[in-house]
Amino acid sequence: MSAPAGAAPADTRVIVGLSGGVDSSVAALQLVEAGYQVEGLFMFNWGEDEAGRCQAADDFDDAAEVCQALDIPLHRADFSAEYKTRVFQYFLDSYAAGRTPNPDVLCNREIKFDAFMHHAERLGADLIATGHYARMDHTGDTPRLLRGRDPNKDQSYFLAAVPIAALAHTLFPVGEIEKTDVRAMAKAAGLPIHDKPDSTGVCFIGERDFEGFLRQYLSGRAGPVRVSGGPLDGRVIAEHAGLIYYTIGQRRGLGLGGVAGAAAAPWYVVDKDLASDTLWVSQDTHHAALEQTQLVAGPAHWLIEPPAQPFRCEAQVRYRQAAIDCQATPLADGRIEVVFDRPPRAITPGQYVVLYDGAHCLGSAEISHAGAAARAEPTTSESIA
């Protein structure tokens, strides 16, 4: 945990974003043990779940028990209105436009490091802290966002769209720790959530059926499923319920078993043609659409001085994919073109490309197009500018 220069713990009030989970709870524990003035703040970002029971209420109770065990105050704030207008609406608009958005990236940028941070400042916070597995280096002239020490839990990808000014006032106490050690610390401290399962999935969807959730807000338009390549090239083999329910590279949930004349092999989504409502699929795991080496993304969000010339770095196009060596070229309109040394799997519009120099996160941009810049249209989105 690297604090900004001159920030003496005993004189520094830190408000921790407490979710009721083990990571944020141990973040608060570490700050208390380091001598900071620590307070918790629980965020209500979403309403009731499909069962009519508010999961957030249970999480708040867990956060309250943690604060009682640590003897620190707990605040709470309702950001559900901001979440629905600044994150969820963009989520819906992106799916309607055929993209596959990453709401966790936007939630960090728009809620946790904007609405939450401003609320914490009104409560008198000098710094904020979260349970993200990432690190901040405050030792140089400019703060740097670094990958978390645990490579299996690193969450810098989700923080790459946050303004550096916000990150400069943030602590990530668990960023130096392995996940197994985090749970051990929680147990040793007697925190009641030490064995609570990690949350999975998008925060407002959770474990429920994704397509069923999306159908509550968007109506898919049926269309043909056509084969791309191979002996069945161009043939219609099924009908889909709507392109909004599919993403590039998707394998599960296609319902295409037993196609006459096709091998007993998995099918993959390789393209979505919105003009004709056609879903293109292939059984070729190395289909060209799944192994493209170029992308265009933007507008670029930099955590460093914006570069003017092409430069070498590494980049990843999904959270769980490894970073790949590449060349990034800033474009005159604020976008970037990235050319990879080897193809990442299934470049998908709406996801983010995040650039790294080793552990140092350089910046990010929403992917608008897989391919060369000459064939891509500039993005018109303002919510991630």
UniProtKB/TrEMBL annotation:
Residue stretches making up the tRNA-specific 2-thiouridylase MnmA-like C-terminal domain: 294-367
The UniProt entry's GO biological process terms, in alphabetical order, are:
tRNA wobble position uridine thiolation
According to its UniProt record, the EC number is 2.8.1.13
List the catalytic residues.
Answer: 107, 203
Using the UniProt record, give the first listed, main subcellular location: cytoplasm
Q: Which domain of life is it from?
A: Bacteria
Tell me the keywords, alphabetical order.
ATP-binding, Cytoplasm, Disulfide bond, Nucleotide-binding, RNA-binding, Transferase, tRNA processing, tRNA-binding
* Annotated site residue numbers, Interaction with tRNA: 132, 351
Q: Name one GO molecular function term.
A: tRNA-uridine 2-sulfurtransferase activity
Pfam families given in the database record:
tRNA_Me_trans (PF03054), tRNA_Me_trans_C (PF20258), tRNA_Me_trans_M (PF20259)
UniProt keyword annotation of Protein transport present: no
Q: Which GO terms describe its cellular component?
A: cytoplasm
Please tell me which top-level EC class this enzyme sits in: transferase
What are the start and end residues of every segment in region (Interaction with tRNA)? 153-155, 318-319
* Catalytic reactions on record: S-sulfanyl-L-cysteinyl-[protein] + uridine(34) in tRNA + AH2 + ATP = 2-thiouridine(34) in tRNA + L-cysteinyl-[protein] + A + AMP + diphosphate + H(+)
Where is ATP annotated to bind? 17-24, 43, 131
tRNA-specific 2-thiouridylase MnmA-like central domain: which residues? 212-283
Q: Could you confirm whether the keyword Nucleotide-binding appears in this record?
A: yes
Q: Where in the cell is it found?
A: Cytoplasm
Matches recorded under PANTHER family: MITOCHONDRIAL TRNA-SPECIFIC 2-THIOURIDYLASE 1, TRNA 5-METHYLAMINOMETHYL-2-THIOURIDYLATE -METHYLTRANSFERASE
Query: Briefly, what is this protein's role?
Result: Catalyzes the 2-thiolation of uridine at the wobble position (U34) of tRNA, leading to the formation of s(2)U34.
> Which family is this protein grouped under?
Belongs to the MnmA/TRMU family.
Protein name as catalogued:
tRNA-specific 2-thiouridylase MnmA
Q: What is the scientific name of the source organism?
A: Salinisphaera japonica YTM-1
